[in-house]
Write a structure and sequence with these properties.
eight-stranded antiparallel β-barrel; 7 helices; alpha+beta; two-stranded antiparallel ribbon; 272 residues
Amino acid sequence: MKVIRLILFVSLISWIASACNHEGSSLVRIETPYGSMVVRLYDDTPIHRDNFLKLVRNHDYDSLLFHRVIQGFMIQGGDPDSRNASIQQQLGGNQIGGDIEAEIVHPAHFHKKGALAAARKPDHVNPDKKSSGSQFYIVQGGILTDSILGELETRINNTLRQEIFYKIQPQYADSLKYYQSQGMQNELMELQIKIIEKVEETLSEMGEFHYTDEQRLVYTTIGGTPHLDGNYTIFGEVIEGLDVIDKIAEQPVYKPADRPATDIWMTMQIIE
């Protein structure tokens, strides 16, 4: 097992090195009071890549704030209202431009430390998971154990089972009600077993969720926030300055909005 993990780790380092030198990728430097970060934008999320580059070229991010900072989770910015905002001003509700169609490339892109992702409105008002036109977050997260990842896998698969159940349950609803009303316990139990078997069969056909070897290696060595995977568009990653994320994340914040007590500004420029 140790040899396998070593081989995977060497492969990961090689992959990171090659990714950093990938031709056609776009690099952006983000300056902050706590140092600079260099992010590489992904080519397989072209809508988000091009939108982000346009905003950087137009200097739309310059002097905006990291308005939401949660240690052990992420740092978020990109609200145009944050420029010159008073300390009492509520932030996080505005964006530059309209929503952007989701480009969720999962499992290839996941919430490892340093992942650059688009913020968005919650599912109940945004079922298509469209992204904010300008707000983004950078993952800090934490290092996880294999057992925690296993627990997350179980939780995700149980959620999938529940979703499958709610989809197929209506076709058995009349029979369930009838058996219950007639006190036909044996028939009711047999039907319940049948439904459970159908749920498991459907999940098996879909394929249970499991973290890839790469994801497990990264989450147990570099860290991240895996519970967000597959639900937000990740369109880049920090390739220099991961320590800056930590410095920003440890700053005192005002609750409940998690706004830093001292403004943390940003400026951006494209690295040609």
